[in-house]
Write a structure and sequence with these properties.
The chain has about 300 residues and is mainly beta. The chain is built from 1 helix and 19 strands. The N and C termini lie far apart (about 55 Å).
Length: about 300
């Protein structure tokens, strides 16, 4: 009985401001919509999750872990995007480049939200968007902007007082500006929402239960050209530079692939109460940031 009480408590305080919910074990998956791929040369976008890539701050500069904080590099299961834009140079304002994709949205004005039911959710190494190269405006592009909407990954937590170390847990995190969700699957459990959730909403599942909450911290969104080309406040538009430039002539005869390499280098960050580098929610550790730590577009 004492162990059962501990199990319950562990799940309840994994993050700050927890809200306990009921979860069901139905085999229900999120509906995804895969873009059609017409004949002709295609431009293909693929996610890569790299824990060794440089860890950057909001300005695209190297980020040192603050004193009293620790981080771990999650094992990414899947991700979805909301927006893709090619920008010719660092002076190109947000939205003035070649916008290739914008995910379906619902509502209007201040209640506008991403429609999670129509999200394209994929793992690393799998195309998440494909379009005809003929639809891309010919030109030379130095920058890529990708708005990230949802991420699902595995982290580890410990509870030394109960001799529990490196326990696995799955986090589903909504990092878009606002998301309309009917339901979503974390790992084995499905959470019903039927409403809008602001940036930072999350659901967490471990072997002992499911909890949800709303992050009160900041979501890091690296943008090396923030000074000349800022992104909208509250968005998750990550910006990265090509090595050289990505050039479209309009006479392509074969497919082009852009690997969107995302830095997961200690992207799960918390205030470490005792400074031992282990995430211990029972000992007062609190999560402060779950944002991606950089983007490098690689032409293949």
């Amino acid at each position: 009985m004492k162990y059962q009480k501990f199990i319950f408590a562990t799940s309840v305080i994994l993050f700050s401001s927890f809200v306990l919910i009921n979860a069901c074990k139905k085999d229900t998956t999120t509906t995804t919509v895969t873009p059609t791929t017409p004949a002709g040369p295609q431009l293909v976008f693929i996610f890569k999750f790299d824990s060794t890539q440089a860890r950057l701050n909001n300005l695209g500069q190297p980020s040192v872990m603050p004193a009293g904080h620790s981080g771990q590099s999650p094992i990414f299961n899947s991700m979805s995007s909301h927006y893709i834009e090619l920008a010719p140079d660092s002076l190109t304002k947000f939205g003035n480049g070649d916008v290739l994709y914008r995910a379906p949205e619902v509502g209007s004005g201040t209640s506008l939200a991403l429609d999670f039911n129509q999200s394209v959710i994929v793992g690393g190494g799998v195309p998440f968007y494909t379009c005809p190269i003929s639809s891309v405006t010919p030109g030379s592009y130095k920058w890529l902007r990708v708005s990230l909407a949802y991420q699902n990954y595995t982290i580890k937590w410990s509870a030394p007082s109960y001799s529990l170390y490196g326990q696995p847990g799955t986090l589903a995190s909504f990092i878009g500006f606002n998301t309309y969700i009917t339901k979503y699957k974390i790992k084995d459990s499905t959470v019903v929402v039927n409403g809008d959730k602001a940036q930072g909403y999350w659901g967490f599942e471990d072997p002992y239960g499911v909890v949800t909450g709303q992050s009160a911290g900041v979501t890091t969104v690296p943008n090396p050209i923030q000074a000349s080309s800022p992104i909208p406040a509250g968005s998750c538009v990550v910006t990265g530079r090509f090595s050289g430039a990505f050039t479209v002539t309009g006479k392509e005869t074969v497919n082009d692939t852009i690997i969107v390499s995302l830095s997961t280098n200690k992207s799960f960050e918390w205030k470490d109460a005792n400074g031992n580098g282990q995430y211990e929610p029972l000992n007062g550790d609190t999560v402060v940031d779950m944002g991606i730590r950089g983007l490098i577009p690689i032409i293949k």
